[in-house]
Design a protein that fits this description.
The protein has about 190 residues and is of the alpha/beta class. The protein contains five helices and twelve strands. It has helices at about 30-40, 55-60, 75-85, 100-105, 130-140, and strands at about 10-15, 20, 25, 40-45, 70-75, 90-95, 110, 120, 145, 155, 160, 180. A five-stranded parallel beta sheet has the order 7-6-8-9-12, sandwiched between helices. Helix 4 links the parallel strand 6 and strand 7. Helix 3 packs parallel to helix 4 (about 100-105). The protein is elongated and about 55 Å long. The chain starts with 9 loop residues before the first strand and ends in a 6-residue tail after the last strand.
Length: about 190
């Protein structure tokens, strides 16, 4: 086994590594407890942009994992950080849920349908034709296109489901424009 005594902090993925749906995976509670007891800093990463870190911390606690919200980094936070680094106090038209809009508000962004700096697309369970149409038109008019996650599908209790930011049939991506993804590396 490799010597890990020099490691000062840990990064770990959440879905499929610590939890599957609402159940902690074997060994995950012990790992989190080990890091916490040793005072080892750690960060739990997720491509999920639907929920805030507070929401996710509560869900993880219900699964038996005690992860403070400060130790959770979502694709929504990465996206908001990226957008704010490019255009401080900018504006965005958002297709997504509270995790994404909250993250953008917290870095000083306003949400607008008029001449936004960005069209930001995250995961949502309420994807609408009207929103897609609006996004396409805003992108064609010059808004920068940002996706919170480059994955075409994501896990669910019933099997894979489309991730709207990358699904070819539901993305507001005009033919000549590809979104910048701020969270996950392109495979």
């Amino acid at each position: 086994m490799a010597d890990r005594s020099g490691i000062e902090s840990w990064l770990t993925d959440m879905d499929g590594v610590l939890v599957h749906e609402n159940a902690a995976l074997p060994g995950a509670p012990e790992l989190i407890r080990q890091w916490t007891d040793a005072g080892t800093p750690f960060l739990v990463l997720t491509n999920n942009s639907i929920f805030t870190p507070r929401d996710l911390a509560a869900r993880l606690r219900a699964s038996g994992l005690d992860v403070p919200e400060e130790s959770i980094w979502t694709s929504a936070l990465a996206t908001a950080d990226f957008c704010a680094s490019q255009i401080p106090n900018g504006s965005a038209f958002v297709i997504g849920e509270s995790g994404l809009t909250t993250a953008l508000h917290e870095v000083g962004f306003i949400m607008t349908e008029r001449d936004p700096d960005y069209v930001v697309v995250g995961e949502t369970r309420n994807y609408s034709f009207e929103a897609i149409t609006k996004a396409i038109r805003l992108i064609n008019d010059g808004a920068r296109f940002i996706a919170t996650n480059p994955d075409a599908t994501g896990p669910s209790a019933d099997g894979p489901m489309p991730r709207p930011a990358r699904s070819p049939h539901s993305s507001p991506r005009p033919p000549a424009r590809t979104p910048t993804s701020s969270a996950s590396p392109t495979r």
